[in-house]
User: Fold these one by one.
Assistant:
Number 1:
Amino acid sequence: MANIKSAQKRIRSSEKRRVDNLAVKTRVKSARRQAREALSAGVAEPAAEAIRTYSSVLDKAVKCGIIKKNTAIRRKTRATEALRKLSA
């Protein structure tokens, strides 16, 4: 345990950030799972809505600095390509 007051505060603030980041990461994973399930169902309209939601969640995670911008772009691209294959 830290003895210096600023180090103790740093531990408290780091823990708070960790919990907040964990919530956002969980939201991203849930949206990703729902998009995959919608794609595997084989119906284009619910899959498109799930991918739209997934893209929104990714953009919010990027805005918070939880994931990197290019990671979000890559994941959105892969999801939309899967939807395009499903629609074709």
Note: The domain at 9-87 is CATH 1.20.58.110 (Methane Monooxygenase Hydroxylase; Chain G, domain 1).
Number 2:
Amino acid sequence: MSYHHILVAVDGSPTSDHAVAHAADLAQATGGRVRLLNVMDPIAHISGFEQPEIYSQEILPRLRKAGEALLNQARDRVAQRGVPVDTALIENLDARVAQLVVEHALAWGADLIVLGTHGRRGLARVLMGSDAEQVARTSPVPVLLVRLPAAASATAGA
């Protein structure tokens, strides 16, 4: 199977950066294109005590700017390799991140979703949850889960 539309969820973590590199490699090999997706989660950044105008005039624009900067950095890395690339920024209002990733993949016509994962097991996975696992379980298109090499993950956690 050839992957022409490769969707990569980007969050700025080392595992996410590694997933972007893998997606760029695949796109180069298949003549495909990459879409980088960031899901803004403003609910995670508010206390509930903010006045609505503070939220809409200060918090939301700051989160949007940070998401766009993250996407632009990743886009530049992919574009430097000669791979066609674009970006999408989604604001999460009340859905699970995994659901938004799958829905965007379907709407865009993705052939493959590439995600970075920490590869947690046992209690850590149960407590942290796993958007990557949820995407893999619910996506109708193939999902490639990318982990950092052992040496890189040791330095990333430091």
Note: The first strand starts at residue 5 and ends at 9.
Number 3:
Amino acid sequence: MLNFTKTTLQKLELIFQEQDYTIRYEKGNFQSGYCIVENNKILIVNKFFDTEGRINCLLDILSLIVVMEELLTPKSKEFFRKILKSQEYKIKQVA
């Protein structure tokens, strides 16, 4: 199980950065709490969410994108695999 801490949030943000995604925390009328701009690889997450809400949004988004593990640093790869083991999400990965 993942801890819902700022450190976990930072590690998740790093995984997205290594996949060339930009994360922005802004206000908006998102039904799901986030918006994905596919063409520009931009993720917009509701800025009013607390740390746990932000982590849950990023985990939801992670299940929607293809993660190329060869782009991850060893620490990020280890954390990503921990997410795979601990989450029920079907995260797409390209090895």
Note: Residues 6-94 form a domain with the Zincin-like fold (CATH 3.30.2010).
Number 4:
Amino acid sequence: MKKVLLTLSLIVCFAAAMYGQSEYKSAIGLRFGAPTSISYKTFISDPGAIELYAGFRGWDGYSWFAVGGMYQHHMQFPDVPGLKWYFGGGASVYFWNFDDNFNNDDAGNTSFGINGVLGLDYKFSGAPVNLSIDWMPTVFLNGYGNGFGGGYGAFSARYTFK
């Protein structure tokens, strides 16, 4: 997973060096990660954006549906005109479904999480496409997954609106 994230980050950086970035107001698309989600992102100020997502993930023995939102603060990436990096945080709710043989009795069916986020964001000039890659560590406050669930990352591709 680390090699995939590194490769995708390098692709975004090289693309940013080759093409200028144009700004966008909002974007909708897919967030490929854990979970694979529908993502909507809108800027509420020059550096500040809100991203909302809803997604599903299935695994052997369990599946879950998650909804969440986060605030992201965007900064210009040094020495690469147009590429931005961002950080922020938010909250999420997870709804779990277990097979009878997988679930332990003390795990709940709903979990609440506090998220952090750190990522790169790029908007292609002349095309309504935005790409981003990020890492979203999560601390689950209750239920299944209670505690730190730190390995969630995603690659997002979105259609942008001015």
Note: Residues 54 and 67 are 4 Å apart (CA to CA).
